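Below: protein 1.
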Amino acid sequence: MHCLWQLFSSTVKSSVVRCPPMEKIRFTFLLLVFALLPALLFSQSAPAKQSPELDHTTVYVRDLQKSAEFYEKVVELEKIPEPFKDGRHIWFRMGPHQQLHVVGGATEVAPHEIDVHLAFRVASLSDFMTHLDQMKVKYRNFKGDGKISDRPDGVRQVYFQDPDGYWIEVNDDKF
């Protein structure tokens, strides 16, 4: 142990323990440190590539207030401040950093295929289905021949439409 201490300190002198090759070891150690130090200090591993993250999605609607009420009361999204303050936008939080922008101004309902939908995850699909029943919102499975779809991975899903015909999926994925 005493010899190791001498490796790092030239002020320790001992007559009891002698390490004759200490100067050589110290020199080799310092040479390695100074040789590797620039590589350690200046080498930078490439930053981990981060995939883009979803920020928001938008639905373009005819009746802004009716759609806002639907997303707030039926889907149970939290309304958040929007910067435009122009009476055409209402924003909702869909996750920690994701938003739904509901924008008014559409003049007609465009057809929407069920394959293109917003999907939300809930803790209890049966509780959410009870909520939909109380709100008198009709829902179905993906094929339209029943109430609930079961994916091959065991996730259960229901589908319904907002006032402008946009499809919404709600599932019980445990992610």
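Below: protein 2.
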Amino acid sequence: MHLSEDDTRLFYKIFFRILDYVNEKKQVVPELGKMYGATELDPNLVAKVAQCLWENDSLIDSFLQESSDLDEEEAEILRGWKKHITGDFFIERHLKSGSAFIGENDQVFMVSGISEDLEEDFWGVDLPVLVTSTLIPFKGVIITDGLNARKNVFFGGGVKSMLKETYLKAKSEGRIIKSLDSDPENSSRAAARQKNTNGASARRAGKKKAAYTLKIYPRGRGREVYRVMNISPNSTLADLAESILAAFGFRQTYLFEFCMDNKAYSRNWSACIESESKDIHKKISTLNLSVGQKFLFHKDFADDWQFQITVQKIIEGEDVTYGVIKAKGEIEENLDYDYFDEW
């Protein structure tokens, strides 16, 4: 996901206007000259001026008071940048809705690109990747200032698994931060309070479904490889597909189907819910699943990956941990072909 062409131009107008002011005011890189309207810039020099801005964001106020020629909408966007977050982040995955940045205290941010998806900026880079970035709000989404500094650190399976679990846990608990319009700490606390409130309500009611426990294994691989996971009833089938692929370490894809009659290539079309269908966004709670019920997740028809899903338990009125709760064995996805899908 990235900004439109108009919003991209708007971002760079505001960004370079404020950087020109900071550079003139603080003489960070005197030889740099005007950035707004320049046809070529050294990103390393621009980054020095940007660092000065983010370390002294009171300059935003002085700019708006002294010399701003921004209109009110542009000025309001710039004021919002005082909510910026600068630090080190792990980019854990790229999705159609943005890229997952994991920061301090396991906070997960969904970040959009500027002129192109962040996946394009990190093309060919194995994830996770550690970057120093500044996150800023822009018209309801989160973007970076475009000056992401990648650190040449490589991670083993343990770190990858930990970050994957962090992302999936934040997703299942509704804690992924998609806007900086409110303070992210407050957003996380509010999400935690909401989770506790929901749990308390469930205990009082005694009937509210808190999770479905699913056992999932790839067909044709015996029973030596499987995952058991708790999925929220408020999750969608699209969420379940993403969770299954992540649990087995597979790449995200938009080509898949759920076969509710447990038959691949079923002639009962009404039992098949494909990735392009609007029904893929149905909540799990609307499927009327029962204990012992089996259905199929079918991925990338060319490779014909089929995952058997069995409903092991329906948990009611309890606080539960979502995500993978038991795992056995590993499998490798066949990637002999050369294409890259987005979720």
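The longest helix spans residues 5-26.
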